[in-house]
Design brief:
Layout (H helix, E strand, L loop, with lengths): L5 H23 L12 H11 L1 H4 L7 H20 L5 H47 L6 H15 L5 H9 L2 H9 L6 H17 L1 H4 L5 H11 L2 H14 L1 H9 L3 H6 L6 H17 L2 H9 L2 H10 L6 H9 L5 H4 L3 E3 L2 E3 L1 H13 L5 H11 L5 H18 L3 H14 L3
Antiparallel strand pairs: 1-2
Helix pairs in contact: 1-2, 1-5, 2-4, 4-5, 5-6, 5-7, 5-8, 6-9, 8-9, 9-12, 11-12, 12-15, 15-21, 21-22, 21-23, 22-23
């Protein structure tokens, strides 16, 4: 049998999407008025497709089960229709059983349709990526590839599905995504979307897909792109894979690149670099933290806190102290990147951080080290003392030094 054309696949896809929606409505409202009757819009949509199954569904062997489910649905609806107007116990039980059967079959129909959509989209994606890599041409089909990548990312973020996982593994999708991501000749937009999809797959099932990550190549590719999207993905991977990923960042000598981004011209890039640094502080082991200190991290953080986008949350807290002295009883205790804040004051500090993203950044980093997972207790104490020493060295005045030190001591011991 010849492979179906894109037009044929598109036609079937439109019909199946409508059918999937109708099936979903039947499951969501199995006892809704008219939902199990032959004049229900959802039932009509399902039965209309059943009459066309010979010409539409029979061409694809993967849809044979769907054809069977549609035929079964038709039989159930006919049985239900015959029981209408009768008031015997048998008719009542028939209607109850038929209504439940319709919901069950509708669920099977929706699952079969989603499996077909998953199969077709993954097949289309692997063919498009393989062809583009072979021909070294991502320009011609860029929009198609990006659209397929977006579909897969959205699909896996819906939650775990074993059948979908098996399709991804069998098609070797992960390897193709990394090949594109790590190929500097590929279009930046395509590489970024491959990075999004890789991060989504790791969220989908970390136990399976973390083992497939080529950490060294992936880290290098993301930092080489140095875009807001690639840095977001890097931060996501740190949070997902944790200490092993930070170990790879450190062992491959990539820490200096991340620290250098604090000097970027774009504010967004500085903020993203700061986010990565905070995550590395939380998950990083001794070697990673030492590497950041060696690159002058504390000096850069002091300069950022001194800038217009910086500031001191501890001063904001004093300003609000009188206004909010009774908020503790009514407010829920929350944490703003390691600093404990309560009630209305917490909301004010969040708003302040939105406009001053580097406020109290030294203390926020110190908190990440103290509450994090990567360091032993004695290492945490030693690094805290080193932060205090470096703050005194980098501050230009005793007042500035006293404020930052107070934040480090107060913020890291809530």
């Amino acid at each position: 049998m010849e492979d179906p054309s894109k037009e044929e696949i598109s036609q079937v896809l439109k019909i199946l999407e409508a059918l999937k929606q109708a099936s979903h409505e039947l499951q969501a409202h199995p006892t809704h008025r008219n939902s199990a009757e032959s004049n229900s819009p959802a039932i009509k949509a399902l039965l209309e497709l059943e009459t066309e199954s010979e010409t539409i569904l029979s061409k694809d062997p993967h849809l044979s089960t769907l054809s069977h489910n549609l035929a079964e649905l038709k039989n159930i609806v006919e049985t239900l229709h015959k029981s209408r107007g009768h008031h015997s116990i048998k008719s009542f039980l028939t209607r109850r059983v038929s209504t439940q059967s319709i919901s069950r079959v509708a669920g099977s129909i929706e699952s079969e349709i989603q499996a077909w959509i998953d199969r077709e989209s993954i097949d289309s994606l692997t063919k498009a990526l393989t062809r583009a890599l072979k021909e070294d041409n991502f320009v011609e089909n860029e929009d198609e590839i990006v659209n397929l990548l977006t579909q897969l990312e959205s699909r896996v973020l819906q939650g775990f599905n074993r059948e979908l996982q098996d399709l991804v593994l069998k098609a070797k999708v992960f390897s193709l995504l990394e090949m594109v991501l790590c190929n500097p000749n590929c279009l930046k937009r395509t590489r970024e979307h491959c990075a999004f999809t890789i991060a989504a797959l790791i969220k989908f099932n970390k136990d399976v897909f973390v083992g497939q990550v080529l950490m060294k190549s992936t880290i290098h590719a993301l930092l080489t792109m140095a875009s807001s999207h690639s840095m977001n993905v890097l931060c996501t991977l740190i949070k997902s894979i944790k200490s092993p990923f930070v170990d790879e960042i450190e062992s491959n000598g990539e820490i200096p690149k991340i620290i250098s981004l604090l000097d970027a011209k774009e504010v967004e890039m500085k903020i993203l670099a700061m986010n990565c640094i905070l995550e590395i502080g939380y998950f990083g082991r001794k070697e990673a933290i030492e590497a950041m200190f060696k690159e002058g991290l504390i000096k850069k953080l002091v300069e950022l806190q001194r800038s217009e986008l910086g500031g001191d949350l501890i001063d904001l807290g004093r300003f609000d102290e009188d206004e909010n002295e009774n908020e503790n009883e009514n407010g829920r205790e929350v944490t703003v990147v390691g600093l404990v804040v309560e009630g209305r004051r917490g909301r004010r500090e969040r708003r302040f951080l939105e406009s001053h993203p580097f406020a109290s950044c030294v203390a926020r980093f110190a908190v990440q080290l103290e509450v994090g997972e990567g360091l032993r207790q004695r290492e945490k104490r030693a690094f805290k003392q080193e932060i205090l020493v470096r703050v005194r060295e980098e501050c230009t005045s005793d007042a500035e030094s006293a404020t930052i030190i107070a934040e480090v001591l107060w913020g890291s011991s809530p």
